[in-house]
Design brief:
With 465 residues, this protein is mainly beta. The protein has 2 domains: 230 residues, no CATH class; 180 residues, Pectate Lyase C-like (3 Solenoid), CATH 2.160.20.10. The strands form 4 sheets. It has a 23-stranded parallel beta sheet that branches. Strands 3-6-9-12-14-16-19-22-25-28-32 form an 11-stranded parallel beta sheet, with no helix packed on it. Strands 35-36 form a two-stranded parallel ribbon. The chain starts with 32 loop residues before the first helix and ends in a 40-residue tail after the last strand. It holds the Pfam family Beta_helix. This is Right handed beta helix domain-containing protein. Keywords: Membrane, Transmembrane, Transmembrane helix.
């Protein structure tokens, strides 16, 4: 979880540290000595069973991450029908799950159901699917599958959950520890006391088109985030709506790696709306990020917290995002006490109307090759706050006043319809045709192609004339 946010990237000049509210410790540990002992023992067992340390970051090449595990195969086995009114084969999901074999589909009719823990795994090509039948909402709103979650997928693999609505969990909505090859498809997770969707120590995880809202109802006492990836190797979070949660929106942390967070709407969470903490080889692209409300909380934050074993963030792409109206700034860097940041690329983002600053730098020390290019800053309290203490290549950005780097544009752009949220540039306004093709994504956030034979526009959108 992020601590309150001050620190961050910017120019190549020496930096001043801007004091901020004291950082909070991560909250995923259960209070009490017993819980601490359990966690320590689990950690020791995990370390002993792990053959080697996580793979080191790949250097300064742009991240090329496969699209998660892709779509899970459709069921090839039998269908196990569930209806709460007794009109089908099973009354409870748990009873059907106990009979499910690889390739089977547990088809759940509209109604209200108890939570469940998945008792079995599928196999490669023979997934087990838990799916809502058409015709109405399937609400998982009573009882928990375990002490950790209303639905608990821990220790399972090749499982798909589709169309279920998980409501008001006592702890987490959907919880999965030591899992692999899991797909959550079009699920809703709402109003959990703690985090919404939590993956811990997993691999090959996809969360797609989920609606995650109103979680962390305990506020700052809640554990985990709306969507948490904690030490997950290979993940994709795509097309999700993550809004109105009492802590972070989407959080990839503590050695999570090889991930892609794209095409999401993350808004009005306490914030940050998207947080990358002590993780590496991750792409954050094509997201709309707005309204982080917590003190010092930026829309997108890159951080290093003390809870991490490595205190290292590396090889991160922040591209094609629209970042607006966040309380603590647009994009920010945070260091709890010390750590390393390297090979960060912030390219073709539209950063508009944020309090504090568009880019919050603090005195972040960067190493490797770091790029700030083709970003549009407009209407922020100030464009850049703080100075980077290390190497940063900054060029072809649009600032309201003199900014950092070279080949910049200074001015106030005109948008197609800013009050309606349409932040495409009007033809001929500052920023059009003023970017660099070097590292620019081939298409903009709306899918429009950027030109290959001339300079692209600055920002997340490409003007189509």
């Amino acid at each position: 979880m992020p601590a309150a946010g001050n620190p961050p990237p910017g120019s190549t000049q020496a930096t001043q540290v801007v004091a901020g509210p004291p950082p909070r410790r991560p909250r995923w540990l259960v209070p009490g000595v017993i819980a601490l002992v359990v966690v320590l023992v689990a950690g020791i067992l995990w370390w002993v069973s792990t053959p080697s340390s996580p793979q080191q970051p790949t250097g300064n090449a742009p991240v090329a991450v496969p699209s998660g595990v892709g779509p899970a195969p459709t069921g090839t086995g039998k269908t196990l029908d569930v209806a709460a009114d007794g009109s089908k084969q099973f009354r409870t999901i748990a009873d059907a799950a106990a009979q499910a074999k690889p390739g089977d589909t547990v088809l759940i009719q509209p109604g209200s159901y108890e939570g469940f823990r998945a008792p079995a795994s599928g196999t490669d090509g023979q997934w087990i699917t838990y799916e809502a039948a058409p015709g109405g909402a399937v609400e998982i709103n009573g009882g928990d599958g375990s002490d950790n979650g209303r639905i608990d997928l821990s220790d399972r693999s090749f499982v798909r959950v589709a169309g279920l609505s998980v409501q008001k969990a006592d702890r987490f909505g959907i919880y999965a520890e030591d899992t692999s090859n899991i797909v959550l498809d079009k699920v809703e997770v709402a109003d959990s006391r703690h985090g919404g969707i939590v993956f811990l120590n997993g691999s090959k995880i996809t969360v797609q088109y989920a609606n995650v809202h109103g979680n962390n109802s305990l506020g700052t006492d809640a554990e985990m985030e709306a969507i948490s990836m904690d030490n997950v190797d290979g993940f994709e979070i795509v097309g999700c709506t993550v809004t109105g949660n009492g802590e972070e929106g989407i959080d990839a942390k503590y050695e999570s790696r090889n991930g892609r967070i794209h095409g999401n709407t993350a808004s009005d969470n306490r914030g940050p709306n998207i947080y990358i903490d002590s993780a590496y080889d991750i792409v954050v692209s094509d997201n709309k990020v707005s309204g982080a409300s917590g003190p010092g909380k930026t829309g997108i934050m890159l951080g290093v917290e003390d809870y991490s074993d490595t205190r290292r963030l590396a090889n991160i792409d922040i591209v094609n995002n629209v970042v607006t109206g966040n309380n603590g700034g647009g994009i920010g860097f945070f260091t709890e006490s010390d750590g390393t940041f390297s090979d960060v690329r912030i390219v073709n983002n539209t950063i508009v109307g944020n309090e504090n600053a568009g880019l919050v730098l603090g005195n972040t020390n960067l190493s490797g090759t770091n790029v700030l290019r083709n970003n549009l800053f407009a209407g922020n309290e100030q464009d850049v706050k703080g100075r980077s203490g290390s190497t940063l290549t900054a060029d072809h950005n649009l600032f309201a006043a003199a900014g950092v780097g070279t080949d910049n544009v200074t001015g106030v752009p005109e948008f197609v319809d800013q009050p309606a949220g349409d932040l495409r540039l009007e033809p001929g306004t500052p920023g059009t045709g003023a970017g660099s093709p070097d590292g620019a994504p081939p298409a903009d956030i709306a899918g429009a192609a950027r030109p290959q034979d001339k300079a692209p526009d600055i920002g997340a959108y490409q003007t189509v004339e």
